[in-house]
Fold:
Amino acid sequence: MSVSKIIKQRRTVKPEEFNGSIIPSYDIKALLEAANWAPTHGMTEPWRFIVFSGKEGVQQFGLLHANLYKQETPEEQFLQKKYDTLLHKPDKASHLFVVAMKRGDRDNIPEQEELAATACAVQNILLVAAEKNMAAYWGTGGMCYHPALKAHFGFGEQDKIVGFLYLGYTDKELVEGFRNTSVEEKTVWL
Ligand SMILES: Cc1cc2nc3c(=O)[nH]c(=O)nc-3n(C[C@H](O)[C@H](O)[C@H](O)COP(=O)(O)O)c2cc1C
Structure:
């Protein structure tokens, strides 16, 4: 399939729609390899991945995520339903990547460029996942942006978690993609 076809056909699939099948590790490595070819200003290559593998691995992430929520939420605000959602969200995933931007110390490379490069790395993953008929979901809910989460993985204050990538397969037909406005409405030609 051509790259432009894959770009248009790639769809977000919610982890609840996954079927529990496991992605072979050579395909997971192919996703990571694609990520590493993202464009990068000054070759800072700021993308970082923590990979949770297989049923036990993704459930370990769910437990960690839910427990961090419990630990960091004042008792009167704690919702058992939210805890359970975080705990079980990855249940049908095969792998889960925590994706981070590791901020370099080069003053001439602005933070936004290191975030942009990391987002490009994520898109590379999503496109290769689509090419390989995987289901993928980029989530930023729960504790994604909480300082306790990045600290847990050893990231510093200036680093950022950019999302959780849930990966697996689905038996469902992909939904029709849509965009609210055409690219013409977002473009000025001079
Ligand atoms: C930075 C970023 C964060 C996202 N976070 C979430 C999220 O927390 N929950 C969610 O349901 N979808 C999330 N998405 C996925 C979008 O909902 C999805 O891309 C959008 O609905 C368009 O659908 P498509 O990816 O199939 O084209 C996120 C996407 C991006 C780029």
User: Anything to note?
Assistant: The chain has six helices and four strands.
